[in-house]
Amino acid sequence: MIAVRNGRPHRARLVAIDAHIPERVLTNADLETMVDTTDEWIVTRTGIRERRIAEPDQSSADLATLAAEKILATAGVAAADLDVIIIPSATPEYLFPSTASVVQDRIGATNAAAYDVLAACSGFVYGAAQACALVEAGLARNVLVLGAETLSRIADYTDRTTCVLFGDGAAGALIQASDDESVTGFLGFELGSDGSGGKDLVLPVGGSRNPPHMPFAREDAFLKMNGREVFKFATRVIADSTTRLLNALEMSIDEIDLFVPHQANSRIIDHAVDRLGIDPSKVVVNLDRFGNTSSASVPIAMTEARDQGRLKPGDLCLLIAFGGGLTWGSTVVRYEPMAAGS
Questions:
Q1: Quick one: pLDDT at residue 342?
Q2: Any idea where the domains of the chain sit in the sequence?
Q3: DSSP letter at 113?
């Protein structure tokens, strides 16, 4: 699916981003004591050196609440002014109530609708597309989109092929209606899914197919991944989706100020940079310190780029993510905070 903005009066503006990262660090050296692996093996194959892990008493909603409070403070918007809260997450607080509803109550967003999105690592881009649609249809003025993950809870720390990849964290954006004709906002989205690959990245237990009260093998309680197939999918789709979107927008990759890909694997990102001809100085990569944080990955990377002065007001950003489903999503958006330096 390709959608290009058609000039509706209420432009969806990306006005604020922020994140909350757990303090605990799990290094490759730590993993060497837990599973048959080495720092060299992990870095060579993934680019990851460490990741953040939530405390035992921290949940996805806990991390999301702290990130939400930071975003609202950054934007200078009261929780009561939120119209919708969308939380994409592969590790929701519960199947129901939604994580978004839990956060809505905790932050006092008494006027907001709230729901979760289940699109795995593509979730933030999917959520941003929904927020953009709500704003530009005139159904909402303030939408909070917040990726929140505690992937350490579904990682199997006896499986060296998966446990080295994932970290915890929460991050997101406030997307707001603007009638200012100078606002660019979101230019378009390219979203897709290939459900035939769903088996290649799956959490077998917890849904109606394999409910948790039925007998199951220990390993089925954890995330399973066919790394070879997911790698092939990701290297293809990250470049193809970007190309389709830029072609639909009649844009060149050179017009992009900052390229923020999902932080899954350094080799996947390097392949996309080479194939698309992106200036490496425009690419945001922080997976070496955070690992794969699924739906929180792209907004965590954006937040860090802002804090480092790499993401500046007015920059045109290309965001792309891919993950379980198998799903993918890309968008081009201008970063237009409420005040310079936000």
A1: 47
A2: 1-342
A3: E
